[in-house]
Amino acid sequence: MSLRLLSKLFRFRQHLMLLVLLGCSLAGLGQVRITGKVTDEGGTGRPGVSVMIRNSGTGTATDATGNYSLSTDLRPGRYTLVFSAVNSKSVESNVEVGSASSYTVNATMRQDALSLDEVVVTGVSAGTTRRSLGNYVATVNAADLTRGATGNVLAALQGKTAGAQIVQNSGDPAGGMSVRLRGVSSILSSSEPLYIVDGVIMNNSTNRVTNTQNSYDGNNFVGNIGQNRMVDINPDDIERIEVLNGAAAAAIYGSRANAGVIQIFTKRGKTGAPQVTFSTSVMSSSLREKIGVNQAPVKFGGSPDVFTQDLITNIGTAQNPALATNTTAVTRYDYQDYIFRTATGTDNTVAVSGGTDKTKYYLSGSYFYNQGIIRNTDFRRFNFRANIDQTLNNVVSFNLGLNYINSNANEKPDGNSFFSPMNSVTILGNFHDIFARDANGNLKAVGERGRVNPVSIIEDFKQGQETNRVLANMGLKVKPFKGLSIDYTLGIDNYTQNGRTFIPPFTYNVSTAFFGGAAGLDPTLNGYASTASNQFFQINNELNANYQFNITPSLGSTTQVGYSVQYERNRYSMLQGRGLSPFIETVNGASTVLPSIDDRSELSVSGVFVQQNFRFRNKLFLTGAVRVDGSSVFGENQRNQTYVKASGSYVLSEESFFREALPWWNTFKIRAAYGESGNLTGIGAYERFNTYTSAPYLNRLALTGRSRLANEDVKPERQAELELGADLSFFKDRLGLTFNWYDKRVNDLLISRQMAPTTGFSSLLDNFGSLENKGVELVLTGAPVRTKDITWQVTAIYNRNRNKVLEVGRALTLFSTNPGAPVALLEGYPVGVFYGTYFATDANGNQIKNASGFPQIERGTQVDPTTVTPGRDGTTGLPTGTTLRKVIGDPNPDWTGSLVNELRYRKLNLRVQLDAVQGVDVWNADWRTRQGVGNGEVAEQEHRGVLPRGYINSVYAIEEWRIDDGSFVKLREVSLSYNFGKVKFLSDLTLSLSGRNLISWDKYKGYDPEVNAAGQSTLLRGIDFGAVPIPRTFRFGINARF
Amino acid sequence: MKYRISKLIYTAGAAALLLGMGSCKKDYTDPSSVPSDQAFTTSQTLTAVATGLQRTYTAGRASSLFNRITLDGLLTNQYTVINQGNIAEYQLGQGGGTVDGTNTILGGLWTSSNKIIYDADQVIAGAAGLGDRGYASGLVAYATIMKALALGDLAMYWEKVPAGIGERVTFVDRADAYTRAIAAINAAQAGIAATPITAGFLANIPSGIDIPNTLNALKARYSLFLGNYSEALAAANAVDLTKRSVFSFNTVNLNPVFETSTSTNNVVSAAANFGLPAGLQPDPNDRRIRFYQTAAYASRIAGFDSAAASARPIYLPGEITLIKAEAYARMTPPDLANALIELNKVITKQPSADPFGVGAGLPPVVLTTQQAILDEIYRQRSIELALSGLRLEDMRRFNRPLTERKRNFLPYPFLERDNNPNTPADPAF
């Protein structure tokens, strides 16, 4: 038997002894009360500071005035009280417990620019301070989440965390949000991070229970539109959010964390008298800026009743196309005044929290209601939460969290159809009186094209959805002896999302493609109704054991082993029909029953890991881990994937020589982390199987082979990321700088690689090629002024990410998309670039125009997807040859950033946040459509003769014409609040006035470049096609405690 | 102490129990689809896959049928683009170098044609294993119709066609596709001759298709395209001209041309005079004008795309008669007398005498030269078979000037070119 093993055995026996001693020594305890006040440097009481007696598990938190009181059983001796709070350096104070029964310990907390002593949980099992982390983890606290005039937690997170690009894809009141941490990390699957709420993996998928029409089928055609389910969380319940950008620490979460982790911790009860918190607010939202519409007094061609649109309508023949040049006087309308409104809303939360030494609770109920700026749309959410912590004894503690959510949205069809509110006015020449009615009082058709009158959509269409959701978590913590803790977490996320869509039968000619009955009002086709339901169930089990001991007084070790199992099941069903009977809104009223959908899927993921951490004094930290994971979605031979990680950090400023030489330089920490992770849910539950799918066809059964062949032995994507970083702080922590550099590479990329159709398939699902994200993140924090009365705090965040698709071969993968955006995958280019036709230019970069003054599409010879040889006619100099294509735009920004200024004068607080997204292109489909149909401002120029007749017709097909500059700087959040402190029976009162998305500085030709009509799609981004613009919101709020 | 330890054991036990709840099962199968290796093993699944071929050929805007009608209509000036926002249609309407390998209409036709050939071959092979030969002969014949149409579509629009299905296939002259289509039809006809199709099979597929007549009609069509006039004539003579053979549609599965073009008034419109040049334009009294064009829709499209559930004929009786006329006129030596007789059958046909109501109702013509008869056959084919997807092939066969069409042959889709090094060079026009 080796010596080492012997010593281990001996150590184990020591622990056993300790356990026995601990049990026997209970007799000497006595009740002790410790009280005190915690203040900041200015002498103001600090609420919410955690006060813990080290190594005892006993603790409390300060109240609103900074006072605390702690009663516990303690043996006489020396104890250390640890005071910790967000954004502050921890403070330790010793107390000698003797025979007295009460002691007073006060403390002063100092702001910490880097929050090195803040406890971080994400990526480690037992909480650890940021100091020891080898990788970057950002923390956002409650105070920063609730000031921004939004009821959506992801919107509240915008601009507040480094490395994240958070986009609100739609201005609907429950509009979808996309979060990309360090760029897109997959092509086939979602690139959204893993969300964990109190240990429960929270599903954030986008389910199509409304907008169910078949024209929306296909993820890469339309995208992932609608609400995503993080909308169910009440931001008021959140204590803090930790954002883990990289793969380095993902080992703990297994391979679902390929795109990073966002972990949400909800509020928990604290020892003390019950505290009631009440917050209420009212909101007002409106369109930030209308776009200009055509004001020309005439239109081309004849009566508006005969033509829906006028600019590009061919009135000639196929051989001799011609445009109308005669004009008709018309009245111009601005339909924006009709579809948009000033919307109101309210957000209310009541919470009660408190507890004894052993039992703590947090209970809350909230009601959120917000109208959309599109008439007749709204979102309502009820949210109840109970968090209970129970200490059974010194060894076992238990916690339970329950969250019930009911959310309900009244919607209008999504932008991607021409019967959405936005597109119905975009696709119309603005010379139709949409309110005009015929002799029977029915609305009239808007021209000949079978479009839907916007009034029908706003007044008659009914679409909505409701979600009932329960999130439950149970945790058990066992500490059998000093140093060992065993945690077990069980989480369940269960919801049912029901949607209904109703398009009433039209009284006028609407195209059958828009669920009308065409010119003859065919009763078997006119109108559409559907009901859809998505049921989701997910259970995750995590068992972690953590053993901590000191090898020598200065060398500590933490060993962690963990096991996790996750299972999820999804059932989607949809009934639909068309040809509706009047008055009936359900599918029962349909004379033509359309094929129903019944989709079921199940998957499971499991994994084990071991992680070892060594720390030397408080300055050198090393961690290594191995994880083995398997997922049911991948081939049987790919069930065991092994991932490793390693990280280290060195806090140079802890060295005495450093402190002596550079006393003004408070912190200097360098760190490095390497980690691997996979994408265990990277494909759907059954996507690796080659199957024939069934559908009824003409009352018979049809089986259709998939166009995609799958490698049945496909394996998960494998990501390797190297992150290097430094944390620096200067001048008594008044200036802080965090720097991260990363190189993230996803190999064995899952791609539906294109195949020659002569193989019988169009694509092959396989591991192919790789994807790279390289970038830097900078966080600069400063406190230029910090006096008792005035503080000024500045935070600046800068992120730069370069995304590139590698080794996918020279072939072009060009996606045909609903908004016409030519989205491509091309080797050496970022994911999702726009690849299309462009303007012919001369040597000086000026557009080549023909004799009529019309710009020309570039022509010549396309050598390969990225190499062209333009051709020019010898005599006219105009382009000749076939149409050429190149990369014409990129929806991935060059950089994003934010700047937050926080000013406090006594009890008055002002916070101003600017967000910037720069160097990004948007596919502005709507802007072009407005010119083509004649309601846009370029069309007006053609009507007025400023541009030659036929100009828009000549450039309409040139795809580059739709590329728009999406760069912006936004006044994202402004919040002004006044804290009255104690007012009569209230222990604390704060009034606040805040605004969101108030100003946007941009050159964009649409409403707002922060948009994605394709919703939460990974591939289709930066597309403006009928999406509702993000409103400007003002909010007045009252927050009281008693 | 004892109390604490027992509690510890209980909690640990409870934890273990909970952990067991999330079992580690890893093998889940999709309850809503048939594994590929099992799809060709039973008569039911084989029939369903064959029905799936018809679905691929005819359902929706992505179907071969829509793509073929639209492609041919635009390239031969039968359609006018009325919204250049529909980029694929617009490119085809512009023609020439504007049509390239990204075009989704030609890409769609190429892809679904190859897919149909791939799956039809598997159905035909799978049918060999069935004991019920009468069922098998129906299955083979039904799948063969779809395969022949797919092969024919490739040959009508591309100069070279793939030699088969597989990795890096080579390309052969387009005539080879017609030859293969005819060979498949011959095999299907031999099967039916050995054991006639059972009624049980016909009940399992969508109604509307007259299998024996369609096989002969397609054989006649492709034989004519190959210049095998005696075979064309023999096959055409075998077609019962009183029968209808159609792709059916209903209110769930709409006629794709109606759904996308007729009803929307937003994609294409039917050109006046069937897009024919002066000298070939129809007689104003030709009753087929009213059959094919309407004022009810701004798109002016009527004919077989006039309503949501309008069935589309797979071939028209008029086509068969005109095949006979052309075969007589072109055979060596030409039989102009019989050619004129067959031609006049079409010219004088009353709508009521045609199973589909297609009839010119005009007085007979007297023509004496071969060229004059061929010119008239071209005019009659252009009108009688308007918007059926055959015009581009006719234009080439009747040596119409290139200026009458937007392209002579299509370029190959990038999807093929980028992934198959054997893809031929694109034709110049």
TrEMBL record, chain A:
Composition bias, Low complexity: 869-879
Pfam families found in the cross-reference section: CarbopepD_reg_2, Plug, TonB_dep_Rec_b-barrel
Cell compartment(s), UniProt: Cell outer membrane
InterPro entries, per the entry: Beta-barrel_TonB, Beta-barrel_TonB_sf, CarboxyPept-like_regulatory, Plug_dom, Plug_dom_sf, TonB-dep_OMP_SusC/RagA, TonB-dep_rcpt-like
Domain TonB-dependent receptor-like beta-barrel, first and last residues per copy: 323-998
Keyword presence, NADP: no
TonB-dependent receptor plug domain sequence ranges: 133-261
Membrane topology, record value: Multi-pass membrane protein
Protein name, as recorded: TonB-dependent receptor
Chief location of this protein within or outside the cell: membrane
Region ranges (Disordered): 857-879
Automatic annotation (TrEMBL), chain B:
Residues covered by the RagB/SusD domain: 318-420
Location within or outside the cell: Cell outer membrane
Keyword NAD (UniProt): no
PROSITE patterns from the UniProt entry: PROKAR_LIPOPROTEIN
Keywords of the record: Cell outer membrane, Membrane, Signal
Main localization category: membrane
Signal sequence segment: none
UniProt KW Membrane keyword: yes
Lineage: superkingdom: Bacteria
Family from the record: Belongs to the SusD family.
Protein known as: RagB/SusD domain-containing protein
